[in-house]
Design goal:
The chain is built from three helices and ten strands. By secondary structure, it is an alpha/beta fold.
């Protein structure tokens, strides 16, 4: 019997899809909080950034002019929760005039490789993103 994201003793694969800009709505912050909660319960968590969601990972965010708290530094904590698969759609970056160089450097320590720091962000094209989505058990879109 399936319940609360588990099939017997096997954890399902969860993909959290971020399509909205980081500020102006609560979606980006809520997504980040839900990702951390899922990871705390040892879910197999991946996070996708497409459309305006790619702006969530842009480095050097300054929210002082809009009066909102900048939560972008929290993405650096994802590796501590074993969230190491952040997928960014290449086409979404290009459509917004962004490149991989515009994104924060988010890393994790790979315990299987003598704790070497490795990048969490993986650039994928639309076809790869579609395949990734097709391979998930649960997709939550924000």
């Amino acid at each position: 019997m399936e319940e609360d994201g588990y099939q017997g003793d096997v954890c399902k694969r969860f993909l959290y899809v971020n399509r909205r800009a980081p500020y102006g709505t609560i979606y980006a912050l809520e997504s980040l909080e839900v990702v951390l909660i899922g990871a705390a319960f040892e879910q197999d968590v991946s996070v996708a950034f497409l459309d305006d969601g790619v702006y969530q990972l842009v480095k050097g965010q300054d929210t002082s002019g809009i009066g909102m708290k900048n939560f972008s530094a929290t993405y650096n904590a994802l590796g501590d929760y074993e969230v190491t698969k952040l997928f960014v759609e290449k086409e979404s970056l290009a459509e917004r005039g962004l490149t991989a160089d515009d994104l924060m450097e988010i890393t994790y320590e790979d315990e299987d490789d003598d704790w070497a720091e490795k990048p969490s962000i993986r650039l994928v094209d639309r076809a790869e993103m579609a395949a990734l989505m097709a391979d998930q058990d649960v997709i939550l879109s924000f």
